[in-house]
Inverse folding.
């Protein structure tokens, strides 16, 4: 299992992408920069697809970019490796300035370090599965036998064993996307970038592929940037989610933060129908345990979802102890758990510390906050959304990466 660290893989600061004539003047002029989209278009003929966006993608996390169609998601992710040239702002990968990279360095970034998986697979129709998977290695100049060996390994990893000699036309949509994923993984990139890879798939296959991503991530710990306009997918996959609207990031947080404390009415409306108990962890509802409570009742992990704790409390009839590495760090009772379901328990960033203030043991929970709560949310969130995934309470790990020819093969 891989842990998420604070070390950024990508670090983005004040990023703008404006399409249209004399695009540079828009971010440079505070008046133009603050115009609503329609007015900006009528006054300048420009579209600001990405507006003043800043975020880090941490090593080992699944960073989801979510938003409605046209909100700027694809533009944003393509700017990361300059498949689209940013208009203003800075982008660093492992501390290196992406905007200052020359062609050779950029090619190396796209071929080796950040591989993309696209919605329409981008497979080469006349090549076999194996040769499609090996494609990224081929353009890296890896020798034939080595790339075939590597491709075979990855084909097995994504569950396509036995289909190596088929051509894309002989595969289902889900299988084709597995080839796309395998191709990305074959080059062993540091980051996998997914641009709505599953939106063309039917719901069951889509769920399969989501599971596949979670599994790969858990096994390999690869950093992933995953674009989707599907909230359930975002909640299920994301360690953190950046929610975009009209080119801006309106909220960036864990699924628990986004569902528990929406930044504004727009986000609130977006997450309105999410079953909160499947996203929120028991930390939200936890309070200090009395002496008696600390020794009795069912035990749940701090990563358990409210839904899981409700089950434990209902079975035992007693408040559940939240136990972290053998220590009771608090309790959750039925009132508090119902409060989360009803949405009457506000979530604030310090909630877990507040709930346990004064409790020595609680310090342990607060102390491991960043990684710990990430894992907690990861565990909880994966069971979230309209298509919950019960039993997904294990903290995850990260997966591996592809490379893509086809329409976007200019990248290579
Ligand atoms: N080459 C371009 N020239 C002009 N405008 C563009 C260009 N590419 C994108 N846009 C505009 O930028 C905005 C953001 O587009 P983008 O493709 O990033 O959205 P998206 O969030 O990925 O949408 P979708 O979910 O439909 O893929 C849209 O208004 C789009 O019309
Ligand atoms: Mg898009």
């Amino acid at each position: 299992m891989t842990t998420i660290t604070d070390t950024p893989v990508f670090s983005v600061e004040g990023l703008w992408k404006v399409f249209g004539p004399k695009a540079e003047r828009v971010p440079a002029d505070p008046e133009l920069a603050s115009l609503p989209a329609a007015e900006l278009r009528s006054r300048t003929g420009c579209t600001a697809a990405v507006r003043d966006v800043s975020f880090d993608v941490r090593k080992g996390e699944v960073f989801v970019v979510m938003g409605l169609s046209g909100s700027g998601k694809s533009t944003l992710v393509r700017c990361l490796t300059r498949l689209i040239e940013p208009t203003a702002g800075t982008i660093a990968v492992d501390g290196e300035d992406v905007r200052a990279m020359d062609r050779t360095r950029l090619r190396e970034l796209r071929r080796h370090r950040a591989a993309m998986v696209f919605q329409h697979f981008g497979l080469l129709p006349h090549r076999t599965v194996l040769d499609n998977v090996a494609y990224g290695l081929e353009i890296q100049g890896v020798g034939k036998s080595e790339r075939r060996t590597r491709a075979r390994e990855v084909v097995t990893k994504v569950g396509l064993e036995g289909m190596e000699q088929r051509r894309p036309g002989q595969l289902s949509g889900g299988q084709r996307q597995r080839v796309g994923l395998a191709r990305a993984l074959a080059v062993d990139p540091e980051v996998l970038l997914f641009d709505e890879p599953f939106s063309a798939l039917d719901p069951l296959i889509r769920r399969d592929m989501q599971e596949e991503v979670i599994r790969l991530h858990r096994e390999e710990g690869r950093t992933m940037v995953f674009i989707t306009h599907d909230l359930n997918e975002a909640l299920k996959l994301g360690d953190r989610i950046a929610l975009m609207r009209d080119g801006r990031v309106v909220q960036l947080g864990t699924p628990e933060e986004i569902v528990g404390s929406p930044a504004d009415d727009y986000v609130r409306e977006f997450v309105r129908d999410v079953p909160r108990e499947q996203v929120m962890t028991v930390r939200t509802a936890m309070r200090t345990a009395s002496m008696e409570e600390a020794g009795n009742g069912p035990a749940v992990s701090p990563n358990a979802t409210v839904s899981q704790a409700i089950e434990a409390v209902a079975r035992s009839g007693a408040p559940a102890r939240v136990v972290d590495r053998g220590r009771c760090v608090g309790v959750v009772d039925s009132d508090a758990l119902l409060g989360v379901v009803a949405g009457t328990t506000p979530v604030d960033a310090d909630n877990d510390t507040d709930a346990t203030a004064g409790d020595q043991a609680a310090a342990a929970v607060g102390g491991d906050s960043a990684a710990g709560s990430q894992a907690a949310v990861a565990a909880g969130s994966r069971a979230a959304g309209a298509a919950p995934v019960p039993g997904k309470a294990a903290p995850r790990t990260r997966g591996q990466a592809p490379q893509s020819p086809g329409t976007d093969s200019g990248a290579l």
User: Anything to note?
Assistant: Confidence is low (pLDDT under 50) at residues 349-412. The first helix runs from residue 25 to 28.
